[in-house]
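stuck on this one:
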Amino acid sequence: MTVAMEKPEQTQTAEPIAPAVRGRRISRAMVLAVILVLWLVLFAVLRGKQTLSLAAADLTGLHRWLNDVNDSIGADRNSNPLFLYFFNEIRLVIDNLVTFIQDLISQPSDTRPVPQIGWLGVVGLTGYVSWAAGNWRVALLAVAGFTFFGLQGLWQESMDTLALTLSAVVVALLFAIPLGVWAGLSDRVNRIMTPVLDFMQTMPTFVYLAPLTLFFLIGGASAVIATVIYAAPPAIRITGHAIRSVPETTVEAADSLGATRRQSLLKVLLPMSKRTVVMGVNQTIMAALAMVTIAALIDAPGLGKTVLQALQSLDVGTAFNAGLAIVVMAIVLDRVTTAASAREETARRSRNRFLKWRRPLLGAGAAVTAVLIYMSHTYVWAAEFPGDGGMGSSIAGGADDVTTWLQDHLSGLTNAFRDTITNGLLNPFQSLLTDSPWWLVGAVLIGLGVVLGGRRAGITTVVCLGLLLGTGLWSDAMTTLASTVVATVLVMVLGVVFGVWMGRSMLVDRVLRPSLDAAQVMPPFVYLVPFLALFGATRFTAIVAAIVYAAPVAMKIIADGVRAVPETTVEAATSAGCNTWQIITKVQLPMSRSALTLATNQGLIYVLSMVVVGGLVGAGALGYDVVAGFSQGELYGKGLAAGLAIVLLGVMFDRITQAAARRASA
């Protein structure tokens, strides 16, 4: 009797809620439509008025003030106590670390015409460390990869890049691991660190470089410090997550046995978190390698400098050869650290009878490695890589031949594709942003922020837009925004198509995911090279490279979201007579709304970073401003302001899309 009376009450309370929810969704869509229609109407009336355009060589008062600050810092660098006893000391320590590693493996040291450890010793040491940390397959890959650098004629450049990467990783982990452990042990510390880490990871890689050159000058020290700032957050996050993921029952058992807090950390938490922490080290190494190549903009040595010089002279062959070396180094470092994180578990599962011989074999390998290091230190033939890098010349020549063939035979197709996207999508949208009055665009962006992300996102948008106006680069920021939005839209199209395909088919996922993982390993610089050959030095080259750079992360997020939809829901839709298209559009995508929003967030951040790097190949706008600021002293202040504008765009859209994701999952 009681149950029969309760059911109607539940039905009565549930019925009015559904229309209300639908009404809210419809009203939000209607508000967005009204905002966009009003924007188009006012654009038609006010086009070209109050656009705040600024010529490439023009400077605002802020830019001149920043130039003066740079000049005054340079004049006081050796007299100001803050520099004498703080910044200069930090630069000295980092320079000494970098120089030490360079003297060890890449640069002539003291009176020696060659490094302390020559190529044979480096290859042997790399193979041994890879074997000890991972397995013999990874060791063979590492030996082959490092030998390939010499065959390319890029041994010293590769070792310079490795030296910068190792320096940055060592310094980053000295801070990141303790901070990650602290964040894992303390909820308060974790809450404090989270927004700081969010901000650090939101900023494109370019942005770290300009401010640091103010205090640490151009060169290796600034490159390493910028890399540390960029590469440390993944290790902090993943280490904290690993510590918090240890089961409470295990910690309580240790406490009940009388373990102190220190013993619990060293004997329980860290050993049980070891695999995840090593994954964090892997992410730090990958981020460091990406950053040290981009740091070529501030005169950091290595492969990035070779790529940068080749891009500036449109030498596709040389850029491809050096870019290939960066890819090989990224793959080797990724595979070694990935194998290290999984080695113990793999060994436990394996019944290989040779495992009992591992320690004696490692001892013998250590002896052989020591002999190789001694030989490379003593004999010139073992120190200098033999040959003249003929393979690198062949690779560069082949890339040039392919480029010429593509331009001769496919230029009609590639130019048509470029012009279609540029004239049909990019130019109209860019015109809408750059030719509208600044206050109209600002009002539209604030409205979108409030509707999509809520009041807090709207407030963030207001603050970011106000500061963006203060940079004096409104028109350039809108040009960059247009390229970013267009690229993000195309990224999401690819992400939805391939993400849904992967989410619905495990076979497709197994085939595509390794390629997507490999694509995420490659530094951003590398993506510019093939598209420079296809499309020339244009902003479209940067957009296509940004799409290819950002699409993998969007695809994987959407695939995971689609796969998370309960099988019972899909089966119910199938039994109700829905076809495949209806299941995707009516069930799986709507139920993956939070994953779609997160994919948009991550895709936009990746695209914004890459579109700016595209300033090297004709993307213009903020990317060009930053690059010009590094190369032309009188434009330094403008480049610094452009870096700030990029940060503001990234923070604004990160907050809007994150808030929208939280709303979608609520």
Observations:
- The two ends are 35 Å apart (CA to CA).
- Residues 1-25 have pLDDT under 50 and may be disordered.
- Residues 316-349 form the longest helix (34 residues).
- The chain is about 85% helix and 0% strand.
